[in-house]
Design a protein that fits this description.
Layout lengths: L3 E6 L13 E4 L3 H12 L6 E6 L7 H7 L6 E3 L32 E2 L7 E5 H7 L9 H14 L4 E3 L17 H11 L2 H13 L5 H12 L26 E7 L3 H12 L7 E6 L10 H4 L5 E5 L5 H11 L4 E5 L3 E2 L4 H11 L4 E7 L4 H5 L5 E2 L7 E5 L2 H5 L12 H11 L4 E11 L17 H6 L9 H10 L2 H14 L7 H35 L13
Parallel strand pairs: 1-2, 1-3, 4-7, 8-9, 8-11, 9-10, 13-16
Antiparallel strand pairs: 3-6, 4-6, 5-7, 11-15, 12-16, 13-15, 14-16
Helix pairs in contact: 4-5, 5-7, 16-18
């Protein structure tokens, strides 16, 4: 039995029988709690700390020990304890971020919206990433900042409704303005603090005077939360003998030179693929007639279709796949020989449902090497992800709304996350993306200007596509969508470079503003029309999931 220290709010020690460790009483404020945690964490023998508000009843001691057998680092019941959708000012900064959409509070799922009223934290997380920021006025605000810090820095955090069994979901209460600004100050660049305040003032949510007063208070906070990346303690020996069947799914269109190189690399995988699906959408008179015969030593399953579409093509393969896992790849990437092996190791080591890797291009390899470590994933890159096939039974397959557009992977990733499955992102599982100048979505004129291009070129603007807006409308409120669009407009004035380049970008951004607003309006109307016809999400036939 592992030692778990109990930290109680609103109680005296004599009122509780706790068999797992020491009991401490804390005042219901971040300052006192921070001091207490510093004292408790210094003790070497505790495996975890359990925070509990006695007004919720007696702590659920039967559940606690079993939670520590799971691969997570933090468990809480925040979505049932009025943390849902808070703090509201995050909607001015990351309005349509995947993890800003809360899952159902009645299921276990990833959520950073932590409440310290019912929260279990491994001691190692407290030692490395710290406890609540004592500059906060409310324990609710401090808990939100703590959860956001933890998930950004690599701790696996989980909402567990069974921590407060039988308790009805509380309606969310507003976090004090000072704490909302502190949250933005600690988690984002300072410009976003100003942007959020200005938007709140313009919408009449905050008076200019109150914003100014709160800003002055927040500016002089002294505490700086720890910013190191979480170093996960070493687990037991890794599994090296893999018997699982992996089906590889590769949609392709007019990219045979890239595809052939990728198939060569799949021949040399340390863990051999069980089957490789190539769904060829190239027009018939341009198809490579020798593709099958040239790779007859591969477990090749070739489909050709005259109806181009990335979602329908992948869905064809998924309905036929017999593997235990699905590896999604693009047709213009390069796969290192240990790609499948690394993904499988991640799934086993962290008991996750999805292992996400990263893709890089030759000119951004440096940024990849400097990227953060292992984290819970807030993306689902269909160009480099391995998923347990059974997950797709609950989430469904690809939405045909994105057949000729981008963001299909974002939509599927959102459904996987909202279903409660764990997705892990490991930047060490990386593949080279050639970004081929022909084929793919370019065949449908679906590629849009990227954020990187907008930040480096004066006349390029990264406006939301129809697919971007459709995805947002599927999962977020009208207010959140409006803020997303305003942030996109703000981005049309931003560029990296010398001062003369920045001035020109602002000038041309102002000149192009009417056109950009019109394009956003037109695309939004098309997205509304799409919502009348879509989503169209085929369900995975369970007989093929075995």
């Amino acid at each position: 039995m592992r030692k778990i220290d109990l930290i109680l709010f609103n109680s005296e020690i004599s009122q509780i029988n706790w068999p797992y460790g020491d009991i401490y009483c804390a005042a219901f404020n971040p300052q006192s709690l921070s001091i207490l945690i510093d004292e408790v964490v210094d003790k070497p023998d505790a495996n975890a700390c359990f925070f509990w508000d006695i007004t919720l009843g007696n702590p659920p001691s039967d559940e606690i020990q079993s939670l520590l057998d799971q691969p997570f680092d933090v468990w809480h019941a925040g979505l049932r304890l009025d943390m849902g959708e808070q703090p509201s000012m995050i909607n001015f900064v990351k309005p349509t971020w995947m993890l800003n959409r809360d899952p159902d509070p009645e299921i276990e799922a990833t959520s950073w919206r932590l409440s310290l009223q019912a929260c279990l934290v491994r001691s190692e997380v407290l030692k490395q990433l710290g406890g609540p920021d004592p500059d906060f006025e409310s324990l609710a605000g401090a808990g939100l900042e703590l959860g956001y810090r933890y998930i950004r820095k690599g701790a696996f955090i989980r909402h567990c409704p069974q921590l407060v069994p039988g308790l009805p979901v509380k309606s969310s209460s507003e976090i004090p303005l000072n704490d909302q600004l502190r949250f933005l100050k600690t988690g984002f660049d300072q410009r976003w603090l100003w942007w959020a305040g200005i938007r709140a003032v313009l919408l009449g949510l905050v008076s200019p005077l109150n914003f100014y007063k709160a800003l002055q208070t927040v500016k002089y906070g002294k505490h700086t939360p720890r910013e190191s990346q979480y170093k996960r303690p070493l687990a037991g020996p890794e599994k090296t003998d893999f018997s699982e069947r992996v089906s590889v799914v590769i949609p392709t269109i007019n990219r045979y030179p890239y595809l052939r190189k990728l198939l060569d690399q799949l021949q040399n995988q340390a863990v051999k693929p069980y089957e490789i699906f190539v769904i060829d959408q190239t027009p018939e008179h341009f198809r490579d007639a020798n593709l099958l015969s040239d790779f007859d030593d591969l477990p090749f399953r070739y489909f050709s279709t005259d109806k181009a579409g990335q979602c329908s093509s992948r869905n064809i393969a998924l309905q036929s796949a017999k593997g235990d896992y699905i590896l999604f790849l693009d047709d213009d990437v390069e796969a290192p020989s240990d790609l499948i092996e690394k993904h499988l190791k991640n799934l086993h080591k962290y008991q996750s449902n999805v292992s996400c890797g990263v893709v890089y291009e030759k000119d951004n390899k440096l940024s990849l090497e400097n990227s953060k470590g292992l984290t819970i994933s807030d993306v689902f890159p269909a160009g480099n992800s391995l998923i347990r096939k059974d997950v797709l039974i609950e989430s469904g397959l690809f939405d045909l709304a994105y057949d000729l557009g981008q963001r299909a992977d974002g939509d599927l990733g959102m459904r996987i996350y909202l279903s409660g499955f764990l997705m892990v992102l490991d930047p060490l599982i990386s593949i080279l993306h050639h970004r081929a100048p022909i084929g793919g979505l370019r065949e449908h004129n679906a590629r849009v200007n990227t954020r990187g291009g907008s930040r480096s070129r004066i006349f390029e603007y990264n406006l939301p596509s129809v697919s971007d807006i459709y995805l947002a409308k599927r999962y977020f409120s009208d207010k959140q969508i409006n803020e997303m669009l305003w942030i996109k407009i703000l981005g049309t004035f931003s560029i990296v470079g010398p001062i003369w380049k920045r001035i020109l970008k602002i000038i041309f951004g102002i000149v192009s503003l009417p056109r950009n607003l019109w394009l956003i309006y037109k695309r939004s109307k098309i997205a509304d029309e799409m919502l009348e016809k879509f989503p169209q999400i085929p369900q995975l036939l369970e007989r093929n999931s075995k």
